[in-house]
């Protein structure tokens, strides 16, 4: 399992996440479309915030089940937190915030969140 490094744009929030990236999810819901994030889902325990945990802001909308986490300084959304259908804690990592991957090599799956 690989450990990936990531951060917001200004570096106030930094994190590590363990796992092997097999794909990214592009969603067209009202939030993801505006953010332009490319998401990779992992168990929440595989995500460690290494800087700025106290600086992170949270936004929720609709059913308020996903905590969209972002840096209030630069506005970048490095990850979200929630639970999967089985009740397990998960993190939705914004692959665009990882510093050690080539996005062109990641297969992208499109999800129609707008219709859900």
Please characterize this protein's 3D structure:
It comes from Lysobacter yangpyeongensis. Keywords: Metal-binding, Zinc. Belongs to the Gfa family. Residues 4-112 form the CENP-V/GFA domain. Pfam families: GFA (PF04828). With 116 residues, the chain is mostly beta strands. The protein is built from 1 helix and 10 strands. It has one helix at 30-35; strands spanning 3-7, 14-18, 24-27, 39-43, 47-51, 57-59, 67-70, 79-83, 89-94, 108-111. The strands form 3 sheets. It has a 5-stranded antiparallel sheet with strand order 4-9-8-7-6, with no helix packed on it. Strand 8 and strand 9 form a beta hairpin. It is globular, with a radius of gyration of 13 Å. The N and C termini lie far apart (33 Å). The mean pLDDT is 93.
Q: Unreliable runs, pLDDT <50, ≥5 residues?
A: none
Over all CA atoms, what is the radius of gyration? 13 Å
- Please tell me what the overall shape is: globular
The largest sheet has its strands arranged as 4-9-8-7-6
Quantity of strands, as a count: 10
**What is the strand content?**
35-45%
- For the termini, the CA-CA separation is 33 Å
User: What structural class is derived from the secondary structure elements?
Assistant: mainly beta
Q: What order do the SSEs take from the amino end to the carboxyl end, as H and E?
A: EEEHEEEEEEE
Helical content class = under 10%
What value does the average pLDDT take? 93
């Amino acid at each position: 399992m690989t450990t990936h490094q990531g951060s917001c744009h200004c570096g106030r929030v930094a994190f590590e996440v363990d796992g092997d990236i097999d794909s990214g999810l592009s969603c067209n819901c009202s939030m993801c479309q505006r953010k332009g994030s490319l998401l990779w889902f992992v168990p929440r325990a595989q995500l460690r915030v290494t800087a700025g945990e106290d600086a992170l802001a949270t936004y929720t909308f609709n059913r308020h089940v996903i905590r969209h986490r972002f840096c209030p300084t630069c506005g970048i959304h490095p990850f979200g937190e929630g639970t999967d259908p089985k009740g397990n804690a998960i993190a939705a990592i914004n692959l665009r915030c990882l510093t050690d991957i080539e996005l062109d090599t990641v297969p992208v799956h499109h999800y129609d969140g707008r219709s859900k």
